[in-house]
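Obj: model holo form, ligand = 3-methyl-2-oxobutanoic acid.
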Amino acid sequence: MARTIQIFDTTLRDGEQAPGCSMNLQEKVEVARQLEKLGVDVMEAGFPAASPGDLAAVKAVAGVVKNSVVAGLCRALDKDIDAGWEALAKAAAPRIHTFIATSPIHMEYKLKMSPDQVLERAVAAVRYAKRYCSDVEFSAEDASRSDPDFLCKVFAAVIDAGATVVNIPDTVGYAIPEEFGRLVQYVKEHTPNIDRVKVSVHCHNDLGLAVANSLAALVHGADQVECTINGLGERAGNASLEEIVMALRTRKDLFDLTCRVDTTQIYATSRLVSQVTGVRVQPNKAIVGENAFAHEAGIHQHGVLANRATYEIMTPESIGIPRNRMVLGKHSGRHAFEERIKDLGFTLEPQAIEEAFQQFKILADKKKVVSDRDIEALIAGTTATVPETYRLDRWVVNSGSTMSATSTIRLAHKDGTIHEYAAVGDGPIDAAFKAIDHIIGKEPDLEAFELGAVTGGEDAQGEATVKIAYEGRRWNGRGISTDIIEAAIKAYIAAINAMEWELAAVANGNGTKREVSQGV
Ligand code: KIV
Ligand code: ZN
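Output (holo structure tokens):
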């Protein structure tokens, strides 16, 4: 019978650590609900000691998730573990995940600790965590560059101290599949009492081998695999959940391994994570990329029409992309709209459905056909937002080849006041952003600005994403509109609202995190 492995998702922690991928509390809760629906065994919700904002987000996730273990990452320090437990205490199934590096280079240069001191700290941290929580995972950071015998010694000691899971991270994405598989096997064969715990792996993608390394580890006996949606994560990212799960399913003849994930929720989860983080999925990304199931070459199309299996090793339906959907347009009613939202994997409160439906009607008046992408973008605009300090009331731009661009912006402040300003800039968007800066009385740096289309076609909606920085902190914003200049202005105001919200929280002593993102 196939062996069941555990899927540990760390999109909300390692994924969120990637530059520009941070999520606010509401966004994390929304993604957590979807991960639960996807059927992950464990979700790592954050790093509670990193900031009060992170702690609050992990607490919020722990409060809503019932069918997955919720983990919080803690360094091997009492104060981190205290913060971790404060965040996790109310979870239906909490797990404290503590870590310390075991490689010579990390111990000498980062920790400035001897191997004996590291061993002692690891054991003390696991013992301390056990006072709070029965489920404790221990990770040996940079395990793949550690001395395998030292690794086994540390694992044996933390198992003695009560660890329930030991994790072997390839922290810097250095391992090669055959070698990494052998390391897992070595740990299993040389660690006393290893059969009392689950062996986990956690691979980064610096050499593009994270999924291959994870699969090799599973073949060599790993019980748990740590991964993220869309492969998000530090630097080149983590092993991609959807690629691991679909490899196991598509090649079950070879792996004979199974997991609890409902693969038909993969597409919806991927889209949600992309919407919330503002990080687009590359078109040729395996499983969830736009082109993953597109057949362009005539010879391929011919084959697929004759028999899909000629060029398709898995079906779009298996990851939750239905074929032959009814087209939605201005004559579609609320029922059809609600059904489509459900099909796309969203669970919304009645008020959010109402708001999204009103937006849909406005959009359907402008576009003949409203695509699934349009609906996802609409929904991202009606959920998971931080409170609005400023709302766009009106805007005008003037530009051309023989004059300087100008823009007049009118914003409504949450205190009921209206603010208007006209500015000159290098192009209409620069002028609009300058007018907004004047109104808010701050000049954040515009670190990144991207414009794209939600779908193809002349009547496509424009989608803008911006990243701003101010006094060493960063925020993201997204905006959509059938007018690209309006999309850009909305994105900028969204980032400004995220900034104002966080700065107000810091001023009130509830400092949040390094980066906050905001929706449309
Ligand atoms: O990459 C890594 O080593 C980690 C650990 C903290 C598990 O993310
Ligand atoms: Zn990692």
